[in-house]
Design goal:
Blueprint (H helix, E strand, L loop, with lengths): L8 E3 L5 E3 L4 H14 L8 E2 L1 H8 L3 H13 L3 E4 L3 E4 L4 H21 L5 H19 L3 H17 L4 H8 L2 H14 L3 H18 L2 H13 L2 H5 L4
Antiparallel strand pairs: 1-2, 3-5, 4-5
Helix pairs in contact: 1-3, 2-3, 4-6, 4-10, 5-6, 5-9, 6-8, 9-10
Length: 230
């Protein structure tokens, strides 16, 4: 039996099929969220509805809808008649993310051994990509690949509940990762080296070594909460 896919399309007056654009609120949401995660909008920045409406090319109504969604995700704080304040990453948030990552990723590293060939190949691919991104100075992309590298190890365990829990940290990890790479550009070389070590431990089947490296790798971020990053 043949199946077909239904695409969101629109018919122009000329009769040509065109791809339907995302809803206005979705465009604003994506625009602001990307700006926050990539630090185009730094913590403490006050965004106004008018400015965002002009940037995205929409009315203020979808801007309000998008900002409500972003406030629910903890990225901004709305102030009536003033605008939306981009919330800075707090020391408590950093500590909470580090603690959760340690619990999930150390368990996942142990469970990943013996590592299937598919996982090893995927991690090798991601590491090579991150090296290229770092060399090109694309720190935002390198942070995304960094997060994906660790998520692949978590997903390899086959625990969907744990994977979904880890995915909930995605935005916070990306924001922290980009901030670290901008503030401490020397850290990217250390990150790549530790990813090499994690991959090597998984490749050799040394579960304890993999767990220890992951612990050291993730624990470094706890220095951010104490202001001790060098």
């Amino acid at each position: 039996m043949r199946t077909c896919c239904i695409y969101a399309v629109d018919m122009s007056t000329s009769g040509t099929l065109t791809a339907k654009q995302p809803a206005a609120a979705d465009r604003v949401y994506a625009h602001v969220k990307q700006g926050v995660l990539q630090r185009r909008y730094e913590g403490g920045t006050l965004l106004t509805e008018g400015e965002l409406a002009e940037e995205v090319g929409v009315s203020r109504t979808p801007v309000r809808e998008a900002l409500l969604r972003l406030e629910a995700e903890g990225l901004i704080k709305l102030y009536p008649k003033k605008g939306a304040l981009v919330l800075p990453v707090s020391a408590q948030e950093i500590a909470d993310v580090v603690e959760t990552r340690q619990l999930v990723e150390e368990h996942a590293a142990r469970k990943a051994v013996p590592a299937p060939p598919g996982l090893i190949a995927r991690l090798e691919e991601l590491l090579a990509r991150q090296k290229e991104q770092a060399a090109a100075g694309d720190l935002a992309a390198a942070a995304v690949t960094d997060r994906t590298f660790h998520a692949e190890i978590v997903r390899s365990g086959g625990n969907e509940i744990l994977s979904r829990l880890y995915d909930q940290l995605r935005d916070r990890q990306l924001r922290m990762g980009v901030a670290v790479m901008h503030s401490h550009p020397d850290r990217i070389a250390k990150t790549l080296s530790e990813h090499e070590e994690i991959l090597g431990a998984l490749r050799s089947g040394d579960a304890e070594a993999a767990v220890n490296i992951v612990h050291r790798h993730v624990s470094w971020f706890s220095n951010l909460a104490r202001g001790e990053v060098r």
